[in-house]
């Protein structure tokens, strides 16, 4: 079997091994080794891809003209790298989280987690729309058990929203778009420069673009974003890796891929009817930020922040100029590292103290100094302050917007930066500079370690070591991407 | 050589003669082995015939050496070959599964009768797919129908009798309509051989009689295949019949009726109908399309409202039949191929879900939605197979059900029929809605506290269930046998439609 097939197969194999593991220790070790093995297979692809090679392997021919084929190209490699690097980090976190919170059915949890990563890697390496769709749907189905893992009526309801929106958009719109493309061209593969160039034009093109952009519900472009806040009932590692990285990035990645390889940026740029996408994405950026501002639940605030940040990527793609596409691809990486850190921190806070709401977080910096330090750095990256990864990608996006002379997009980016600051900085401020509030239990001590004395809800001390380690690694990534952004930028620039 | 030449009649004569032997054998276990052997032989014959057809083209066999149109002709093309293979393969799977399930659901003294009727039913179904004579077809239709009425009545409780009675009445109306229609056509042409009939009908100078005759035939068959709005017999019959019978009926009975409708519509009626002048916006295919799509949507909504899962899947069958009829009514090679490939895949997936429900009924004693709480944990393998079939029913890519939906969507878009495409998508989403209720209850709702631990279903049921379950995945990726055959069959069918 080819390397590409193994990359997708390794997590699937891992899921089986995890399900078979008898002792918790073997289970956790298997998980970690599988994650590392997957990463070890993705890394060697970098230099051939930069050298212009595009290895591919066809696994099966389903119907004439419709194959299951894997291949690797720069954009797919970016996504595959993000997913596999962060899976290793998230595995550490998941192991620590499952143990600290005594999560029920840990084997099912870890196995579904591995399956979902396998599906996300399949999306990354898909060589045609059918293969992509196959893995896209697999990703939806394998994350469903994770969203409903708690089994509470609330989780079941959330699972219904999750599955309902994701599957109805993908079957109702995305599939229709794919069949339309197939009926026009008789093929589905990704072609540099665009498969549809010269095949379709005018309003029909705009409609087809709409089928794809809204059909890819995982990109969470408003108004098909409701599944993402719903999915926040899932345990923290799921929210972190899947609903900040693998699933949503699979969505925006698919949007990017369709714009670059199926439509072709030139075709879209020359079709005025297709320019609506910029306005929709811009609206999504601003509206989601405004909603995030008003959320008190930390995970909900992060979820709406994700929706807004995903729309940045779609916004970058919707300018249809190379510079903005580069910015979009780099933002995919930068946001992944920052947002996973934020969700890690949210989970760590809940694990250590039982808190879930922003209004409870006064003075938290003194109790959880490390966690809140990581949180603050990641929050700065979301705003786009140097020296963080967010600055690089926002810079590139702004450069792209100037390049395209899209002043609306420039305005949206600036306004949203202000809004990002408005909903993240208060948390950072409260954690470090406000005295701990005494309201959860009746406690009169306000001195440095006073909160340790709190009752049943608030446990004492920092988050468990594995959680801190994972957060530290991802925060390191946020900084490293500022200092050495070369690899993602180089990959993104080699897009056709 | 001589035996090979006589395979076409042997195909249906074998189960027809072997059926009553079960009554003599007496002991259920013996009957089961005998029936399975017969079905296996039928499958072997069907596959051999299919190979011959694909090699050398249409097989025409003259019964008793009488030349058609005077004698009875057995006429086998790719579509017949496909149906014969499908029906006998499903029969083998169901008969492998049957002994344990039948022991559980049917009293010992009637089990011999069950196998007899099953083989007679098989003979009728296979006969319908082989014959090239319109009246001979009626005979086989009645053989299969009569045996099915009785099979349904073997179900537990008085409601099975009532369901069988309703089915009997409506089925007889359908059969009578068919004969009346055929009589009218015979009146114009003086022949009953299908090919001959088609040629004579083109030259017939009595369009009104033709129209009425064709109307009776089509309506009669529509009852048999449960096309909306003539589907009322089906939910009751599927719900109250023994599990194996539901599975076999759902996978083959209505499919063969659909085959007969397609055969008569395309081979016999299409050439003369294209010459008829119906009032402007009305066309035959337009009516079929509207009925098919309406049936698909309305039956899916009905399925959503059911709490008995067998009844839910019965409505789902009505919906999928509507989809197949609508596909065929688009009249393009792609759409007919899509319709036929969906026919094959739907047979596989409906066999999966009904056989899985048979296992649930055996272990949990009920297939009502509320009694399935925690079933996913209590019967992981059985419910796992159910999930595979259910995903296939929704049309998730990678499963068999996706192939047909894809082809039908493609056919709709090739003709710029956006409405049809959107309705097919909507049908899938409704399917998701009713199927997912089951998933939620079976996996996410905890089992009742007083529920006893139950063992998985016996291996003799689990293996055939696993075979059809995995077939859903195999036919979702490896489509050469399904899509390839459907394409050959659609060419054979449409070859007759274009004069």
UniProtKB/TrEMBL annotation, chain A:
Pfam families: Proton_antipo_M. It is found in: Cell membrane; Membrane. The chain crosses the membrane at residues 31-51, 72-96, 108-136, 161-182, 202-221, 241-264, 276-293, 313-334, 340-358, 370-392, 404-425, 465-484. It comes from the Bacteria. Residues 126-419 form the NADH:quinone oxidoreductase/Mrp antiporter transmembrane domain. One of its GO terms (cellular component) is plasma membrane. Keywords: Cell membrane, Membrane, Transmembrane, Transmembrane helix. The keyword Nucleotide-binding does not apply. Its main location: membrane. The keyword Membrane applies. It is a multi-pass membrane protein. Belongs to the CPA3 antiporters (TC 2.A.63) subunit D family. PANTHER family: NA(+)_H(+) ANTIPORTER SUBUNIT D1, NADH DEHYDROGENASE. This is Cation:proton antiporter.
TrEMBL record, chain B:
One of its GO terms (cellular component) is plasma membrane. GO terms for molecular function: NADH dehydrogenase (ubiquinone) activity. The chain crosses the membrane at residues 6-26, 33-54, 78-100, 112-128, 134-152, 164-189, 209-230, 242-266, 286-305, 312-331, 343-364, 385-406, 418-436, 457-478. It is a multi-pass membrane protein. Its main location: membrane. It comes from the Bacteria. Residues 133-431 form the NADH:quinone oxidoreductase/Mrp antiporter transmembrane domain. Belongs to the CPA3 antiporters (TC 2.A.63) subunit D family. This is Cation:proton antiporter. It comes from Pararhodospirillum oryzae.
């Amino acid at each position: 079997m080819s390397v590409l097939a193994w990359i997708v197969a390794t997590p699937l194999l891992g899921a089986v091994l995890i399900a078979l593991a008898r002792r918790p220790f073997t289970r956790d070790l298997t998980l970690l080794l599988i994650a590392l093995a997957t990463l070890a297979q993705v890394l060697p692809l970098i230099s051939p891809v930069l050298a212009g090679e595009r290895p591919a392997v066809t696994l099966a021919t389903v119907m004439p003209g419709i194959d299951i084929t894997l291949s690797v190209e720069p954009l797919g490699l970016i996504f595959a790298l993000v997913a596999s690097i962060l899976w290793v980090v998230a595995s550490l976190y998941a192991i620590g989280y499952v143990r600290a919170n005594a999560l029920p059915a840990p084997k099912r949890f870890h196995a579904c987690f591995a399956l979902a990563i396998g599906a996300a890697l399949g999306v990354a390496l898909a060589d045609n729309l059918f293969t992509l769709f196959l893995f896209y749907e697999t990703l939806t189905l394998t994350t469903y058990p994770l969203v409903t893992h708690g089994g509470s009526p609330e989780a079941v309801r959330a699972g219904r929203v999750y599955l309902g929106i994701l599957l109805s958009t993908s079957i109702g719109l995305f599939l229709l778009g794919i069949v339309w493309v197939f009926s026009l061209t008789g093929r589905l593969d990704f072609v540099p420069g665009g498969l549809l160039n010269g095949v379709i034009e005018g309003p029909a093109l705009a409609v087809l673009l709409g089928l794809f952009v809204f059909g890819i519900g995982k990109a969470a472009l408003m108004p098909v974003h409701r599944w993402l806040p719903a999915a926040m009932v899932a345990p923290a590692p799921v929210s972190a890796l899947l609903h900040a990285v693998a699933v949503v990035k699979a969505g925006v990645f698919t949007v990017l891929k369709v714009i670059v390889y199926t439509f072709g940026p030139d075709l879209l740029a020359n079709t005025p009817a297709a320019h609506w996408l910029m306005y929709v994405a811009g609206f999504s950026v601003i509206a989601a930020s405004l909603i995030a501002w008003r959320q008190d639940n930390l995970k909900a605030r992060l979820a709406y922040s994700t929706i807004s940040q995903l729309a940045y990527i779609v916004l970058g793609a919707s300018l249809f100029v190379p510079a903005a596409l580069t910015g979009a691809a780099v933002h995919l990486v930068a946001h992944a590292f920052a947002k996973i850190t934020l969700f890690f921190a949210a989970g760590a806070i809940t694990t250590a103290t039982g808190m879930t709401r922003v209004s409870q977080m006064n003075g938290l910096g003194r109790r959880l100094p490390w966690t809140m330090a990581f949180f603050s750095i990641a929050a700065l990256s979301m705003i786009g302050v140097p020296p963080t990864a967010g600055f690089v990608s926002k810079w590139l996006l702004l450069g792209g917007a100037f390049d395209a002379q899209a002043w609306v997009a420039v305005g949206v980016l600036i306004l949203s930066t202000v809004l990002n600051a408005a909903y993240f900085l208060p948390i950072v401020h409260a954690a470090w500079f406000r005295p701990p509030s005494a309201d959860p239990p009746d406690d009169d001590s306000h001195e440095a370690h006073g909160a340790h004395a709190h009752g049943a809800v608030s446990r004492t001390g920092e988050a468990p070591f594995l959680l801190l380690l994972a957060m530290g690694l991802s925060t390191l990534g946020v900084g490293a991407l500022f200092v050495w952004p070369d690899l993602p930028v180089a990959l993104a620039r080699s897009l056709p | 050589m001589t035996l090979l030449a006589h395979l076409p009649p042997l195909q249906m004569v074998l189960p027809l003669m072997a059926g009553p032997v079960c009554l003599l054998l007496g002991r259920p276990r013996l009957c089961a082995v005998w029936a399975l052997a017969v079905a296996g032989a039928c499958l072997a014959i069907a596959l051999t015939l299919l190979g011959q057809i694909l090699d050398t083209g249409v097989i025409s066999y003259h019964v008793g050496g009488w030349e058609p149109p005077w004698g009875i002709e057995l006429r086998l093309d790719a579509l017949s070959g496909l149906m014969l293979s499908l029906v006998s393969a499903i029969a083998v799977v169901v008969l492998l599964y049957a002994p344990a399930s039948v022991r559980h659901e049917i009293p010992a003294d009637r089990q011999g009768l069950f196998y007899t009727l099953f083989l007679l039913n098989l003979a009728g179904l296979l006969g319908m797919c082989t014959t090239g004579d319109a009246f001979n077809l009626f005979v086989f239709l009645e053989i299969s129908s009569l045996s099915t009425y009785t099979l349904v009545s073997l179900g537990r409780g008085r409601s099975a009798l009532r369901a069988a009675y309703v089915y009997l009445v409506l089925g007889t109306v359908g059969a009578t309509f068919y004969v009346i229609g055929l009589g009218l056509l015979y009146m114009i042409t003086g022949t009953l051989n299908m090919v001959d009939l088609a040629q004579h009908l083109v030259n017939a100078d009595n369009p009104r009689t033709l129209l009425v005759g064709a109307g009776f035939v089509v309506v009669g068959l529509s009852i048999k295949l449960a096309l909306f709005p003539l589907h009322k017999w089906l939910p009751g019959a599927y719900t109250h019949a023994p599990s194996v019978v539901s599975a076999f009926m759902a996978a083959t009975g209505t499919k063969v009726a659909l085959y007969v409708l397609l055969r008569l519509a395309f081979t016999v009626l299409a050439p003369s109908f294209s010459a008829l002048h119906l009032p402007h916006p009305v066309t035959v295919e337009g009516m079929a399309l509207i009925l098919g799509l309406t049936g698909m949507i309305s039956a899916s909504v009905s399925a959503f409202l059911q709490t008995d899962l067998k009844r839910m899947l019965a409505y789902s069958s009505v919906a999928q039949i509507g989809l197949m009829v609508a596909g065929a009514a688009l009249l393009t090679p792609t759409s007919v191929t899509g319709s036929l490939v969906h026919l094959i895949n739907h047979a596989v997936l409906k066999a999966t879900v009904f056989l899985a429900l048979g296992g649930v009924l055996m272990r949990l004693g009920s297939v009502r939605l509320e009694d399935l709480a925690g079933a996913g944990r209590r019967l992981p393998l059985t419910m796992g197979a159910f999930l595979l079939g259910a995903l296939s029913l929704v049309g998730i890519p990678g499963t068999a059900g996706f192939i047909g939906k894809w082809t039908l969507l493609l056919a709709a878009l090739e003709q710029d029929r956006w409405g049809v495409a959107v309705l097919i998508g909507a049908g899938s989403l409704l399917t998701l809605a009713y199927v997912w209720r089951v998933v939620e209850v079976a996996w996410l709702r905890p089992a009742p506290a007083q529920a006893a631990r139950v063992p998985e279903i016996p291996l003799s049921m689990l293996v055939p269930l696993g075979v059809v379950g995995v077939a859903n995945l195999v036919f979702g990726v490896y489509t050469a046998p399904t899509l390839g055959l459907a394409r050959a069959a659609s060419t054979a069918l449409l070859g007759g439609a274009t004069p």
